[in-house]
């Protein structure tokens, strides 16, 4: 699995403020069509299409929706734990915060830059505290916003991920 080191662009998770899941959001459609189509045929043949498990939000119980086949996707809350050095058990430890992982040793690993200039927040495919919100990684400190950000916020960064045949 690979993910971009930096944010490749800013985009809204969805184009309408309504209940939205990864399965039916605009950013998923974009990543698996227009963005995917930027690859040449040789590189497309190396991208492995996967069925991503979309788990409900562990703090709020918000339903994550249907699974679907993706060539390119955003990470989930669980994948952010797994791929950035944390145990998914820590997702179960809500406390009184809106952010998970405040002041954690792995926060800097989750930080990403926009236009190689400054740290910025980026979308995850998991739902926030309701389906009008999507989870994200905070830009200035790498904390994970399990509560979510408005799905129509067009300032959200995208860090596409994919499985690649070597």
Topology:
Layout: E1 2-3, E2 9-10, H1 26-35, H2 41-46, E3 47-48, E4 50-51, E5 69-70, H3 77-83, E6 99-100, H4 107-110, E7 112-114, E8 118-120, E9 122-127, E10 133-137, E11 144-150, E12 157-158, E13 161-164
Antiparallel strand pairs: 1-13, 2-12, 3-13, 4-5, 6-11, 7-8, 9-10, 10-11
Keywords, separated by commas or semicolons:
four-stranded antiparallel sheet; 25% strand; alpha+beta; 13 strands; 166 residues
Question: Can you walk me through this structure?
Answer:
The chain is 16% helix and 25% strand. The chain has 166 residues and is α+β, with helices and mostly antiparallel strands. The strands form five sheets. It has a four-stranded antiparallel β-sheet, with no helix packed on it. A three-stranded antiparallel β-sheet has the order 1-13-3. A hairpin with a 3-residue loop joins β7 (112-114) and β8 (118-120).
Helix content: 10-25%
Rg, Cα atoms, Å: 15 Å
Order of strands, main sheet, comes to 6-11-10-9
Uncertain residue ranges: none
Strand content: 25-35%
**Main sheet properties:** 4 strands, antiparallel
Helix/strand order: EEHHEEEHEHEEEEEEE
Count of alpha and pi helical runs: 4
Mean of residue pLDDT values: 90
Q: How many structural domains?
A: 1
Terminus-to-terminus distance: 10 Å
Shape: globular
Task: Please count the beta strands (DSSP E, at least 2 residues each).
Answer: 13
Structural classification: alpha+beta
């Amino acid at each position: 699995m690979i993910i971009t080191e930096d944010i490749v662009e800013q985009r809204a998770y969805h184009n309408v403020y309504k209940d939205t899941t990864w399965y039916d959001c605009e950013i998923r459609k974009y990543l698996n069509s227009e963005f995917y189509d930027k690859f040449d045929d040789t590189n497309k043949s190396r991208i492995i299409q996967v069925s991503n498990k979309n788990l409900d939000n562990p703090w709020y119980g918000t339903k994550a929706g249907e699974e679907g086949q993706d060539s390119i996707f955003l990470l989930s809350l669980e994948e952010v734990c797994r791929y950035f050095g944390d145990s998914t058990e820590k997702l179960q430890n809500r406390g009184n915060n809106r952010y998970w992982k405040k002041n954690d040793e792995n926060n800097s690993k989750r930080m990403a830059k926009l236009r190689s200039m400054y740290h910025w927040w980026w979308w995850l495919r998991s739902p926030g505290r309701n389906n009008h919100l999507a989870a994200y990684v905070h830009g200035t400190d790498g904390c994970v916003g399990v509560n979510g950000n408005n799905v129509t916020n067009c300032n959200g960064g995208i860090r596409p991920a994919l499985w690649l045949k070597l």
